[in-house]
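Q: Here's a chain of 257 amino acids. Please give me its 3D structure as tokens.
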Amino acid sequence: MSRANRAARVRIGVRCVGTLLLLLAIALLLPERNFSAQPENSEPPLRIPSNVAWTNETLALIARGNAFRGLLLARRCNHCHGEEGFSSVPGVPNLAGEDRLSFWKQMQDFRAGKRTAQVMQAIAEGFSARDGADLAAYYAMLPTTSDPQDQRVFPEAMADPALASTALTLVVFGDGQRGIPPCQSCHGPVSYVKGAPPLATQNGAYLEEQLEHFSNGARANDINVRMRSIAKELTPEEMRAVSEYYGAGLGPGVSSR
């Protein structure tokens, strides 16, 4: 190789090294960036609404629930939910006649923090999955007929009876244009979906609060985002109408329970 060629190669090598040093210096001067962070336009991280899955094992566990043992465990629940499953406070849910699967799911969601409520989370943490099944068996067998010995507030007359027609339409027919199914297609008596509670004897104030929570995302333990999607389509007046309708004992099927 001639002296001229060697000199040319040396000059090229020096230039390459110089370029690399320059790029390194620029990189060191640039502000630190977190390349693992999500792009601004990316989807939010996946949030699992509930850890409950309706497997054969889960269904068998709930079916084995011992109602007598549940009666003993329910002493920790009576103060708020009533000794016979009907609360004296409108904003606290009635548990008498509750569906086993629905009750058990809510207890597990409270335990896992998928449904938030300071008092209920603390209580649910003290119950095992088997305890939840026993409690579910007990409350499911309680009658919902009126008893002069209990302190129930259900049923309460609708504050605005004119809203009954609005509620009846949503409960029986829904609103197809907004993608709202009839309430009774999941909550009975037309159909009962796994994990969906019956509403025929539920307190109206409690129902209205839950619809508001589903609507604003404060409650998000509904599998497949069913209730959040529905609640977001309801107006405040419609939420009040449906809640008061059920709370007044006007829900379909109430006379047969």
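Q: Can you summarize the key feature?
A: The two ends are 102 Å apart (CA to CA).
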